[in-house]
Amino acid sequence: MINILTKGSALMIGQKLKYLRQREKLTQGELAEKLNISRGTYAHYELGKRNPDYETLNKIANFYNVSTDFILGRSYAESSEVKDAFDPLEELKQYLIDNNMQDMDLSFYDLNSWKDLTREDIEEIKNHFEWVREKAKKRKDD
């Protein structure tokens, strides 16, 4: 197999991967688990010692919602689509509306502290809501 990526490009890819991972406040181990690869393999990507294969590169791009071109350094734009910056409060608000919970009183929370939540954090909150909903349904059915 011919590797078209040079050592210099591998280092650049590694820097992008590290930037994206740290932006989402993940450890190498956490991200490797989500990608179903070893932490050591992922660490080699960040260090520029290895390049991700095509499938892994796509998994990484999909996870971060960026283009593979951004990771490979062929584009400065993170996505080929125009997208707004992630706003966790707007994401939660939309989830509450979508699930007919828009009248829920959240005034006892310091919502400003929620502005630092990542996409993964929001997904955990949604999963928790689903878990509570299923638990209540089961209790009602028993």
TrEMBL record:
SMART domains documented for this protein: HTH_XRE (SM00530)
Protein name: Helix-turn-helix transcriptional regulator
Domain HTH cro/C1-type: 17-71
Top-level lineage group: Bacteria
Gene3D superfamilies: lambda repressor-like DNA-binding domains (1.10.260.40)
PANTHER family in alphabetical order: HTH-TYPE TRANSCRIPTIONAL REGULATOR XRE, TRACRIPTIONAL REGULATORY PROTEIN-RELATED-RELATED
Keywords: DNA-binding
SUPFAM superfamilies: lambda repressor-like DNA-binding domains
UniProt-listed Pfam families: HTH_3
